[in-house]
Each structure stands twice: as C-alpha cells, then as structure tokens.
Write a structure and sequence with these properties.
alpha+beta, Nuclear Transport Factor 2, Chain: A, 175 residues, 34% helix, 6-stranded mixed sheet, single chain
Length: 175
C-alpha cells in the first residue's frame, strides 16, 4: 500500500512533486531500525577487541624489553616522553629518572611476569590493571626474592601507536 503526497513548488514554473511513501508495518520498522543501529555497535566492539589485543601486545613487549634492559625499545617505541611513574619505592619519577635508575642497575630482573586482570579503553586512553610477579637481581631492591606487585598502567594512543604515559606499582608481598 502506498501513500502519495503532492506538493506544489513555487518558482518560475509551477512544479508538482510527488513523494511516494511505503507504509511499513510497525514490527518491520523495528527490525529495520535494529539493523541500522547494530553495525556501529559491532564496529565499536571489534575496535575495542583490536585495541585490547594491541594493549596486551605492547604490555608484553614492555616486559620483554625490561628483561633485556632494552632501553632503545622502551624509550623509542613504548614509553611516552611525558611518562610519569609512582614506583614501588613510593617515589614519583619521570622517564629521565627511570633511565638513571636503569643505568645504576636498580631496575634489573631475572624474571618478570605481568598478569593483566582488566583493560578498559576510553577513547584514545587505555587503563590496564593487574599484578606482576618478578625476581629482581643485581643491586635492585629485594634481589633474589620473588616480589608480587599490583599495578596500573595508563596508555594513550597517538596515531596508531599506544604509548605508556602513566604507571603506578605497589609491592603486595615479598617472598
């Protein structure tokens, strides 16, 4: 069933415009509306999954770089120039201070495992929370023991790269 609407447009010449409206039952209209609204939801969900996997990957790359003391990867690819950390010694440090601690051997690990419990992505920011189990060595505090820490990492996406901008780590136990 069709409904025709006619309107007369004023101008140099009179023009009759006919609009054809298809009468759609309400139940079908709801289905069409749902189909129009779902693609953005699925697109958002797929983007969230992609970003969460990218965060998991960069978190693992950071752990590997820390174990290797690979400062080039940490400074050029992972850590933001504006990185700020509330470290396990309860001292707030920036990237340059972290570099000095690494050079002095105060950030040196024989083993390091990061267990991610939750990733929340809000726009171009990702918040990661979980625990870390590590075994410091050398002159690092608690060398030779197993240290369990709780952590929060804050990542920001710049262009297509996630960079660590903030971190907080607290020692939960030393074994």
């Amino acid at each position: 069933m069709y409904r025709y609407l006619a309107s007369l447009t004023a101008g140099k010449t009179a023009q009759l415009t006919i609009h054809c409206l298809l009468l759609i039952p309400m139940q079908s209209l709801k289905k069409i509306t749902l189909l129009l609204l779902l693609p953005p939801y699925f697109l958002t969900a797929m983007t969230q999954q992609k970003d969460q996997q990218a965060i998991r990957d960069v978190e693992q790359r950071e752990v590997e770089a820390l174990l290797k003391a690979d400062t080039l990867t940490l400074f050029e690819q992972i850590w933001s120039p504006s990185l700020i950390v509330n470290n396990p010694a309860n001292i707030v440090v920036d990237r340059q201070q972290i570099a000095a601690l690494m050079k002095a051997g105060k950030i040196d690990y024989a083993a390091f495992e990061r267990i991610i419990e939750k990733i929340s992505i809000i726009g171009n920011t990702a918040i990661v929370m979980g625990r870390e189990e590590l075994k410091p060595e050398g002159v690092t505090d608690h060398a030779g023991k197993v240290v369990i820490r709780r952590f929060t990492n804050i990542w920001m996406k710049h262009k297509d790269n996630w960079r660590l901008v903030g971190r907080q780590a607290t020692i939960a136990s030393i074994q």
